[in-house]
Design brief:
Blueprint: H1 2-8, E1 24-27, E2 32-35, E3 38-39, H2 40-46, H3 49-61, H4 67-83, H5 90-94, H6 97-105, H7 115-138, H8 151-160, H9 167-179, H10 187-197, H11 202-213, H12 222-232, H13 238-247, H14 265-279, H15 287-304, H16 314-324, H17 332-354
Antiparallel strand pairs: 1-2, 2-3
The structure holds coenzyme A (COA).
Length: 373
């Protein structure tokens, strides 16, 4: 009986279909990702972040929202978010970047705004709060947002504390935010949808998602990927370093994926974005090493798990790209949240418009005391 019941349980919900979405499609076998109708490599290369937000929110609401309206609104909302920084107390600045974001985003007031404008306020606030957290932590003065700039460029400007950015840096951060903006029912997006399904508010929905993203099995991996590259240092050290990690029962960060059985297409899109930085003359110190470590990790993992394909995931080249853009490793996961906020908010809207209370079932395997009531 117990065994029969156990086989019915899908512990990680693999393969369980719970909704339909017009936002993104993950094809794990083929290694394709479509975001708001575009292949991820095309979107990463050609789309502006605000256009992508407009497409996601339009698809979620089934109405047309123009990219120029989103661009204008994001600029206005970044300026608004800067007026809220006084509410972020010492506890926020003392915390880790994701904890700081989780707490500060929870103060965002979206009352009175149209649904997609509330989403824009959350996207803008995530960018400004994340940049402010790092400035304060490192004692750098925080620049004021520049509402006329594209959102991605203004975020990087604030996050680096550098007033002028080169076009290569602007394109690099835009490519990153677009690439990771949405990705099917990943753990944080599912969390956002579960909260939305209770008819709760959008702020609660995305705050829950930030908490889920923080975990090292999800969005907490890129910092450790950079640690790994630095610990390996030279290509010839890769094999012994990786094998000793596995011998200690540790996982190789940036490798493997729940859905993809081939290389994560976002790893390829972000690797191209790093190549573009290199072509523009930027020093991308970890690209060659990362390629070698990836190749070796694939081989080492293949030996251990011959029947399971474990390839590079998005976090592998996220670490290389964000490092090349000048961001500190403690800013990597918060920067993931800055981009993914576009997807979370769109899923919130879509779940509210089309979804149903998400309430799965469980099997009780605890004690039963034979006590008469
Ligand atoms: N390094 C070493 N072994 C790995 C691994 C990795 N990165 N990823 C998976 N494995 C191993 C597991 O230990 C497991 O081995 P076992 O069968 O001997 O227990 C086997 O491969 C199957 O893994 P499973 O736990 O079923 O995979 P999953 O679908 O639950 O995990 C991840 C997907 C992403 C959580 C997993 O690949 C991982 O932990 N990767 C590293 C963290 C990371 O990069 N996260 C970012 C994801 S975008």
């Amino acid at each position: 009986m117990q065994t029969e019941i156990k086989t019915q349980i899908k512990e990680g919900l693999e393969g369980v279909l719970v909704t339909a979405t017009a936002l993104s499609e993950v094809d794990g076998g083929g290694g394709h990702l479509t975001i708001a109708g575009y292949p991820v490599e095309v979107a990463t290369r050609d789309q502006r972040f605000e256009a992508l937000c407009a497409q996601l929110w339009s698809a979620a609401l089934n109405e047309t929202i123009e990219p120029h309206e989103v661009e204008k609104c994001l600029g206005k909302q970044r300026a608004w978010a800067a007026t809220q920084l006084g509410r972020m107390g010492e506890a926020v600045y003392a915390a880790d970047g994701m904890d700081a974001l989780r707490t500060s985003v929870s103060f965002v007031d979206v009352s009175g705004l149209a649904p997609w404008e509330a989403c824009a306020r959350l996207v803008a606030s995530t960018a400004v709060f994340s940049a402010a957290w790092f400035s304060k932590k490192t004692g750098k003065p925080l620049l004021a947002p520049s509402p006329k700039l594209p959102h991605a460029a203004d975020y990087l400007r604030l996050a680096l504390g550098q007033d002028q950015l080169t076009p290569a840096l602007e394109n690099g951060i835009n490519a990153y935010l677009v690439c990771i903006s949405d990705h099917g029912l990943n753990a944080s997006t599912f969390t956002a949808r579960v909260i939305a399904s209770t008819a709760s508010d959008p702020v609660s929905s995305v705050v829950g998602a930030i908490g889920a993203l923080k975990g090292p099995l999800h969005g907490g991996a890129p910092g450790p990927v950079l640690d790994m590259l630095e610990a390996i240092g030279r290509p010839e050290n890769a094999i012994s370093w990786l094998e000793s990690q596995l011998a200690e029962g540790k996982r190789i960060m940036g490798m493997g994926h729940r859905i993809y059985r081939v290389r994560d297409p976002r790893a390829s899109a972000l690797e191209s974005a790093v190549e573009n930085l290199e072509k523009a003359g930027l020093h991308t110190k970890n690209l060659a090493l990362a390629r070698e470590v990836e190749r070796t990790a694939r081989e080492v993992l293949k030996k251990r798990h011959p029947n399971r394909s474990l390839e590079a995931n998005v976090e592998f080249y996220t670490a290389v790209l964000l490092d090349a853009l000048g961001l500190h490793r403690s800013q990597f996961s918060p920067t993931f949240a800055v981009g993914r906020m576009a997807g979370w908010t769109a899923h919130y809207l879509e779940q509210r418009r089309t979804g149903r209370l998400i309430r799965p079932d469980s099997i009780y395997n605890g004690k039963r005391f034979n006590i008469k009531a």
